[in-house]
């Protein structure tokens, strides 16, 4: 088959962010835009001739177009095999599993995660390496450098393949296999969790609601929760993936999963509520009348993980991103295992997991996962919760209260200021950065600054350093505020303000979070001048 060399010129701004390249669909749809980026990936990543590439996505608008082109390009670039999910579907954790299981050299995951989808919304491409995890910074930097000099991309001249039927076809000498996106993943989950105990609890009356948000987890949740675990039909809501997610943001938080919250705080709430995001790596956990923050969920899962067969051997260590609350650190201390603090971005957990230094990882941004794959995993978190509740025969609320009574409670919230002019956001961060050194000793209301710095991470495995990963203001008594700019947005800048206050086990354990954080919220504005810099008097989203 003929390989055609297409001449091209670089597009500016193809720098991967926190999790791959995310832009508006109309940006990605420009001639050669996706092709330039994919060719840059193929030009720089480690792969032997004839190796296997995994391709999948969250089913959003524009997925199929890019998948067909990526297949033609993979064939022209010397891949021997391409594994692609049926219908172009592979959740991010399922793609990580497929890469590992079939020893692929890497994978392209087409997703903009929790961002909305549709012709005027968002699209994204990220590359995962052979361990199944997001490409580390060294690789994304090389990809970006290549996008700035790219002058051609290669594709075989071939028709689109049938993405909807499982089976194999030859495309220009490359074997392209359309695979069941769910089976391998569901089988992996059965090896980790006590499905018999969960089935027994369901038979005893355990009920749940899972909101798939018309995103990728619908088929996975239906197979696992309804078919394999016996939850009633209808337990999975919005279970059919749609290209525009039904017009919603597939972001499992209090704003975008409000219907689930209303159910869980309503009179007929089931025992357990959960949701996942566009590509299936985030999770939301909410019990009957009790929301569990992602930071608390990480801590509670780590404290009880030994109840699941896959973790009965115990944990080697717990890792969390820096803005995530320190709740998990207290569990690590009690278990006598190390706790690691990494920059935001799942890619930073990869080395710790590969080295066997951490078993469970989590982020405040609703991501939790383990060494079973190299991505955060929404359904995994849901199943571990179910496993724990089934074995312990207690409610989410009881488990949370018991946890806080033992470890104390890290009250926590994140305030997001979205769509800010980039110059305003940059000016705010620059001004705060400039005064960090003068903050220690200063008081803001009842809070006195103990230390302030710009977070820098030294990877204990490969010795690399990642600087400027967020500004921390630490107060006497253990409260803190973190300021950083999101690396996943597609329009303007998003300022994230992370607020955390620790209340010891003999303190106030069941107060309103907003009340407990009121002094910190006031201090955040006083320290950073949010209103002065942005004109915004309130955040757009609180999670
Ligand atoms: C991505 C990354 C996460 C990160 C989150 C938020 O999640 O994989 O590691 O915590 O973005 O990043 P930021 O604060 O820079 O927006 P996802 O689910 O969007 O892939």
TrEMBL record:
<keyword id="KW-0460">Magnesium</keyword>
<dbReference type="InterPro" id="IPR045244">
    <property type="entry name" value="PGM"/>
</dbReference>
<dbReference type="GO" id="GO:0004614">
    <property type="term" value="F:phosphoglucomutase activity"/>
</dbReference>
<dbReference type="InterPro" id="IPR016066">
    <property type="entry name" value="A-D-PHexomutase_CS"/>
</dbReference>
<feature type="domain" description="Alpha-D-phosphohexomutase alpha/beta/alpha">
    <location>
        <begin position="184"/>
        <end position="286"/>
    </location>
</feature>
<dbReference type="Pfam" id="PF02878">
    <property type="entry name" value="PGM_PMM_I"/>
</dbReference>
<dbReference type="Pfam" id="PF02879">
    <property type="entry name" value="PGM_PMM_II"/>
</dbReference>
<feature type="domain" description="Alpha-D-phosphohexomutase alpha/beta/alpha">
    <location>
        <begin position="295"/>
        <end position="407"/>
    </location>
</feature>
<dbReference type="InterPro" id="IPR016055">
    <property type="entry name" value="A-D-PHexomutase_a/b/a-I/II/III"/>
</dbReference>
<dbReference type="Pfam" id="PF24947">
    <property type="entry name" value="PGM1_C_vert_fung"/>
</dbReference>
<keyword id="KW-0479">Metal-binding</keyword>
<comment type="similarity">
    <text>Belongs to the phosphohexose mutase family.</text>
</comment>
<keyword id="KW-0413">Isomerase</keyword>
<dbReference type="InterPro" id="IPR036900">
    <property type="entry name" value="A-D-PHexomutase_C_sf"/>
</dbReference>
<dbReference type="InterPro" id="IPR005846">
    <property type="entry name" value="A-D-PHexomutase_a/b/a-III"/>
</dbReference>
<dbReference type="InterPro" id="IPR005841">
    <property type="entry name" value="Alpha-D-phosphohexomutase_SF"/>
</dbReference>
<protein>
    <recommendedName>
        <fullName>phosphoglucomutase (alpha-D-glucose-1,6-bisphosphate-dependent)</fullName>
        <ecNumber>5.4.2.2</ecNumber>
    </recommendedName>
</protein>
<dbReference type="Pfam" id="PF02880">
    <property type="entry name" value="PGM_PMM_III"/>
</dbReference>
<keyword id="KW-0597">Phosphoprotein</keyword>
<feature type="domain" description="Alpha-D-phosphohexomutase alpha/beta/alpha">
    <location>
        <begin position="14"/>
        <end position="151"/>
    </location>
</feature>
<dbReference type="InterPro" id="IPR005845">
    <property type="entry name" value="A-D-PHexomutase_a/b/a-II"/>
</dbReference>
<dbReference type="InterPro" id="IPR005844">
    <property type="entry name" value="A-D-PHexomutase_a/b/a-I"/>
</dbReference>
């Amino acid at each position: 088959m003929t390989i055609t060399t297409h001449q091209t010129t670089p597009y500016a701004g193809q720098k991967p962010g926190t999790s791959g390249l995310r832009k508006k669909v109309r940006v990605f749809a420009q001639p050669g835009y996706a092709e330039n980026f994919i060719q840059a990936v193929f030009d720089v990543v480690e792969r032997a001739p004839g190796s296997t590439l995994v391709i999948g996505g969250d089913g959003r608008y524009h997925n199929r177009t890019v998948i067909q082109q990526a297949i033609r390009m993979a064939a022209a670039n010397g891949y021997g095999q391409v594994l692609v999910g049926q219908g172009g579907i592979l959740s991010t954790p399922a793609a990580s599993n497929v890469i590992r299981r079939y020893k692929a050299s890497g994978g392209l995951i087409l997703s903009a995660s929790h961002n909305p989808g549709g012709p005027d919304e968002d699209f994204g491409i990220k590359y995962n390496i052979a361990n199944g995890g997001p490409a580390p910074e060294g690789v994304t930097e090389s990809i970006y450098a290549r996008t700035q000099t790219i002058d051609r991309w290669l594709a075989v001249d071939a028709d689109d393949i049938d993405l909807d039927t499982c089976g194999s076809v030859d495309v220009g000498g490359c074997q392209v296999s359309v695979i069941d996106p769910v089976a391998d993943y569901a089988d992996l989950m059965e090896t980790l969790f006590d499905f018999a105990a969960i089935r027994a609890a369901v038979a005893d009356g355990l009920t749940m609601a899972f909101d798939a948000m018309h995103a990728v987890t619908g088929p996975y949740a239906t197979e696992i929760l309804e078919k394999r675990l016996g939850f009633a039909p209808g337990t999975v809501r919005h279970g059919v993936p749609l290209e525009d997610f039904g017009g919603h943001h597939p972001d499992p938080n209090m704003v975008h999963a409000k219907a689930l919250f209303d159910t869980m705080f309503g009179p007929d709430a089931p025992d357990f509520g959960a949701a996942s995001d566009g590509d299936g790596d985030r999770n939301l956990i909410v019990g009957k009348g009790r929301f569990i923050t992602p930071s608390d969920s990480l801590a509670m899962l780590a404290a009880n993980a030994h109840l699941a067969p896959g973790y009965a051997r115990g944990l080697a260590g717990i890792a969390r991103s820096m803005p995530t609350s320190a709740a998990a650190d207290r569990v690590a201390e009690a278990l006598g295992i190390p706790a690691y603090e990494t920059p935001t971005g799942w890619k930073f957990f990869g080395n710790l997991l590969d080295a066997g230094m951490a078993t469970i990882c989590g982020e405040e941004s609703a991501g939790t996962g383990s060494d079973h794959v190299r991505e955060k995993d929404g359904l995994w978190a849901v199943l571990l919760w179910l496993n724990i509740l089934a074995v312990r025969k207690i409610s989410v609320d009881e488990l949370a209260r018991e946890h806080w009574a033992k470890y104390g409670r890290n009250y926590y919230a994140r305030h997001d200021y979205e769509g800010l002019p980039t110059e305003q956001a940059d000016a705010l961060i620059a001004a705060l950065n400039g005064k960090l050194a003068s903050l220690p000793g200063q008081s803001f209301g009842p809070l006195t600054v103990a230390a302030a710095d710009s977070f820098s991470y030294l990877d204990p495995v490969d010795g690399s350093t990642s600087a400027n990963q967020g500004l921390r203001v630490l107060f006497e008594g253990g409260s803190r505020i973190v300021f950083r700019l999101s690396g996943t947005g597609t329009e303007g800048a998003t300022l994230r303000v992370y607020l955390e206050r620790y209340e010891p086990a003999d303190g106030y354990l069941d107060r309103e979070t907003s009340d407990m954080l009121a002094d910190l919220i006031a201090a955040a504005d006083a320290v950073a001048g949010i209103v002065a810099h942005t004109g915004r008097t309130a955040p757009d989203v609180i999670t």
